Known about the structure:
single chain
Amino acid sequence: MNLELDRYGLWEGINEVIVTTVSLDGKPNAAPIGIIRREGKLMVRVYNGSQTYSNIMETRLLAANMVYDPVLFVRSALSDVDDDVFKFIKTDNGEDFPVIADCNAWMLFEAEFNSENTVLVAELHPVTGTIRQQEIRPVNRAFNAVIEAVILATRYKIFRKDKYLLQIESYSNTIYKCGGSTEKNAYDLIFRLL
């Protein structure tokens, strides 16, 4: 299927989205992941040991959800999100698949990979998608800083190195200077969930 990737906000480079997956027993999962677009191809890298990794291995499907909610990025990175965050769509084979209910757009992909390893590297092939809302959003430095901080928080959870905490703390000035209450709440939530 040829979907216009630019319309969905999937530009050249790494696009931070919330990926949704589902286990074989129907349990939805959400996690921030970078969708990589280079030279006309889409790829994703997912580390072994995560629920996202297991679900992609089992179903070979994932959905990229385009959202601008920094709190949801933090919650999906550092804890499980509530089931009411999801809505289910029907796939081509009639199975239910979770997407984020309040996302601006979502795109369902089939993941093609050859073998499992410490890191799953999969090429993504669009299956279907929906654009619910195309809003104009200027760059917000605080939102971007929250995304960087939550990426560092996930590394801290894995490696438990204090350098990651120091790097997370280095974003506080930008977030408190440039952000609104949502970005500030998301940043504070990182420390509560760590």
